[in-house]
Amino acid sequence: MPSLAELCATPCVMGVVNVTPDSFSDGGRFLEPERAVEHAARLVEEGAAILDVGGESTRPGAEPVPLDEEIRRVVPVLERLRDRLPGAVVSVDTSKAGVARRALELGAQLVNDVTALRGDPALAAVVAESGASVCLMHMQGEPRTMQDAPRYGDVVDDVRAFLEQRLTAAVEAGIPEERVCLDPGIGFGKTVEHNLELIARLDELGSLGRPLLVGVSRKRFLARILGDERATSGPLAPALAIAVLAVERGAAIVRAHDVREHVQALTAAARVRAALPPTRRPAGR
Ligand code: HH2
Fold first, then answer.
1. Distances (CA, A) of 21 to 63, 67, 68, 145
2. What would the pLDDT profile of 33-71 be if each residue is shown by its tens digit?
3. How far apart are CA 214 and CA 50, in angstroms?
4. Is ligand 1 within 6 A of the CB of residue 123?
5. At the N or C end, where does the chain have fewer CB atoms within 10 A?
6. What are the counts of helices (DSSP H) followed by strands (DSSP E) for the chain?
7. Distance from Cα 138 to the centre of ligand 1, integer Å
8. Could you report the per-residue pLDDT of 124-142, keeping only the tens digit for each?
């Protein structure tokens, strides 16, 4: 199984497998374990380097899901994935130690925690003991209320300081730094302008020294950018444009629902980048 550093050596796509009744763009479509696994197999075929399996929606306004219900949703999918796609790199999108523990026993290698180890005090130890990797994401507030007038001093400086502090906390809890990736949490307690500024200045998070994960796929702000205030989920074309811009600014992992199109967009961008004469390539690329 590849290490986090190996996975992130070239920008890759994390495919979303939502096993929820209420996710904002695909809620209810993959609640049945067999359908979720079929979907996951298709994402791998389309080029997903990582499968992110989640049993709790974090869309704005979402209510928390009890531990046993989240386990009930996620475990049958992970069991089938282990048998059906034994080579796949699986991430579990959870904030709960109990869900992560079961997922790691079933072969997951990454815990994607949108609370950055603040949601469940037992989660850091579960990750540390397992040898798994973790994604620490920035969120202001909690999903139920996070879009009620989010505020920052300087959004990039504030998110950067938060991620630095959470990285330190993870290392102090025994998780080696090499196993941590960081995520500015696009759409989590942020206005459209906050999201755009975080993408535009993503390179400023590079000095944290860890791979960056970015998820914009199907988020509502994509529709808002185009002037549609009422859409509940975002269209594909702006997501692809922003994914390419994020990778240009240093993103290593792009979390996406439409894996084929994201892989195609990143491949095209990589070809253009590779066509630059070596003397004109930005340092470090
Ligand atoms: N976005 C969502 C969920 N998990 N994890 C990380 N690290 N970064 C993200 O941007 C991110 C995430 C929300 O998207 P989705 O899974 O489609 O929706 P829902 O939370 O409603 O299931």
1. 12, 16, 15, 20
2. 999 999 999 999 999 999 999 999 998 888 889 999 999
3. 13
4. no
5. C
6. 10, 8
7. 12
8. 999 999 999 999 999 998 8
